Structures are given as structure tokens and as C-alpha cells.
């Protein structure tokens, strides 16, 4: 199936499910995510992050996904996550990404608007949808760190202005989630999410999906969340599988890797269940 992102999120938004967006760091992670998503008949976004860019792996990963995609029947998108440099817009377009996240949330509102709007103008010229972020989501992802005390919940008024002034296609909101694993059970601000949903008309995005209880995600799906990002639990599941595989298959790299991929697929399967309505 041809690669895409925009219509995938719109369908999820209208039908109150979420497209799972999985961070992938290696070819084997790509294989495992796509195989499980295909088995479960779930549209999926594969996210390439800033670490891949720093390690000069972005184009390699994108090319691998592009080569693999025609073998699957599910809708697949390739998403550049947490870009904080407008120069990466052109990189993402040339690489073959299907969507782009501009993260200028650490800057004052007006700067965030200006940087995000510039990304939107460039990406819309080639029909690439753009995700913006408003508020500060705590935790660490892709070596980008926000202290808990600096986390900031997205205000309704700012969300309305941001969407109007930037033209973003989707909006990542800060409503109590965090990147990484939680020290205690998170509590999403569903009332705030409901207010943002009632006053905007675009798909909303939940970052820091690892560790959020299913009942909270189920409620969020009814309030505009159409994309949920998962990273930490995937990495931990994959690495746990690798460690276990090293003991079970010390002299058999093929079966060791298949064992690790099976462990990752189990995490992916669980998150796909969470994303269903």
C-alpha cells in the first residue's frame, strides 16, 4: 500500500481510535512492528527520531521502510519526530517522510508559532502534514529532556490560537503524560483534553504513551486523541528479548534475533489493543 499519514489520522479522528506511532531504531524493529501491525490489521506510523539523524541513519531507515511497505496491506506512514531545527524540514521531505513534527514548544508562544508556521508552509507545498506541539511534556525522549517542574499543561485558549495561526494538521497536547516510564500511575487531565477537543477541529496527539493505563487511553480516544506515541516500552521490550535470547541462543544469531523480535511484537500487540476504540 502507498505510504501516507494525513488521511490515516483523519480516519482515526473521525472514528475515535488512535494510530499507534512506534519509534523504530533498527531494521529488526521495523520488521517486528510492521509484521504485528499487519497481523492485527492496524494502520501504523513508524517514527524516526533525532537520534537516528545524529547517527546518520535517517535515510537508511526511511529507504528500508519504503522498500518494505509495498509488501503490506495496512496503511503505513513514516514520521519525523521532535524536530527542533527548521533546516530538517527539507531533509525530511527529501528523505521520503510522510509527516513531520515541529517541536518548538520550549520557546515562547510567538516563536513556537513562527517556527511551526514556517515548517507548515514548506511541508504543505509538497502535501506533507505537520504536527505541532504546545505545552511542555515532561521526561526524556531522543535525548530531549524536560524536567517535571518545567512541564506545562496546554491551555485551551493557546491551543485555539496556535492551530489558527500555524495551520498545523495535528497537535500534540500536554495533559499529564510524560516521555519515559512513570514512577507512579499517570493521571491524564481529561477535562482539559475535552475542552481542547471541543474548541479545535484537528487530530490531537498524545506523547509519552508508554505506561498510561488502558482506561485513561480509552477515555482520551473519545476526546480527539488520534495518534499515540510509543517508544520506551518498545526499547525495553526489545532489549529484554535480546538479553533473554543471548542466554537461550548463545551461538545462533538468527534465532536469537527472531526471539527478540517476538518479544517486541508482544509489546506492539498490546499497544495496538490500547489504540482501538
TrEMBL record:
Record organism: Alicyclobacillus mengziensis
Keywords assigned: Metal-binding, Zinc
GO biological process, one term: carbohydrate metabolic process
Binding sites annotated in the UniProt record for Zn(2+) 2: 103, 133
Cofactor remark from the record: Binds 2 Zn(2+) ions per subunit. One is catalytic and the other provides a structural contribution.
Annotated active site: 81
Domain of life: Bacteria
The protein's required cofactors: Zn(2+)
Coiled-coil segments on the chain, per record: none
Pfam (any one): F_bP_aldolase
Gene Ontology molecular functions: aldehyde-lyase activity; zinc ion binding
Protein name: Class II fructose-bisphosphate aldolase
Binding-site residues, Zn(2+) 1: 82, 179, 207
InterPro entries: Aldolase_TIM, Class_II_FBP_aldolase, FBA_II
Residues that bind dihydroxyacetone phosphate: 180, 208-210, 229-232
Amino acid at each position: 500500500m502507498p505510504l501516507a499519514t494525513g488521511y490515516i489520522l483523519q480516519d482515526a479522528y473521525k472514528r475515535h481510535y488512535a494510530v499507534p506511532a512506534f519509534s523504530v531504531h533498527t531494521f529488526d524493529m521495523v520488521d517486528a512492528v510492521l509484521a504485528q501491525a499487519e497481523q492485527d490489521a492496524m494502520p501504523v506510523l513508524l517514527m524516526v527520531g533525532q537520534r537516528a539523524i545524529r547517527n546518520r541513519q535517517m535515510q537508511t531507515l526511511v529507504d528500508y521502510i519504503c522498500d518494505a511497505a509495498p509488501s503490506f496491506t495496512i496503511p503505513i506512514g513514516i514520521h519525523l519526530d521532535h524536530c527542533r531545527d527548521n533546516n530538517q524540514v527539507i531533509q525530511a521531505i527529501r528523505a521520503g517522510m510522510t509527516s513531520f513534527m515541529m517541536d518548538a514548544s520550549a520557546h515562547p508562544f510567538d516563536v513556537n508559532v513562527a517556527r511551526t508556521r514556517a515548517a507548515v508552509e514548506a511541508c504543505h507545498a509538497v502535501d506533507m502534514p505537520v504536527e505541532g506541539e504546545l505545552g511542555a511534556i515532561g521526561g526524556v525522549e531522543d535525548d530531549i529532556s524536560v524536567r517535571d517542574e518545567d512541564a506545562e499543561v496546554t491551555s485551551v485558549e493557546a491551543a485555539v490560537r496556535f492551530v489558527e495561526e500555524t495551520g498545523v494538521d495535528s497537535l500534540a497536547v500536554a495533559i499529564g503524560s510524560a516521555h519515559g516510564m512513570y514512577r507512579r500511575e499517570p493521571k491524564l487531565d481529561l477535562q482539559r483534553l475535552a475542552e481542547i477537543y471541543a474548541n479545535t477541529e484537528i487530530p490531537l496527539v498524545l506523547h509519552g504513551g508508554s505506561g498510561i493505563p488502558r482506561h485513561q487511553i480509552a477515555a482520551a480516544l473519545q476526546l480527539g486523541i488520534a495518534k499515540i506515541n510509543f517508544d520506551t516500552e518498545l526499547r525495553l521490550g526489545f532489549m529484554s528479548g535480546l538479553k533473554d535470547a543471548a542466554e537461550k541462543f548463545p551461538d545462533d544469531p538468527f534465532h536469537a534475533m527472531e526471539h527478540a523480535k517476538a518479544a517486541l511484537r508482544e509489546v506492539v500487540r498490546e499497544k495496538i489493543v490500547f489504540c482501538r476504540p
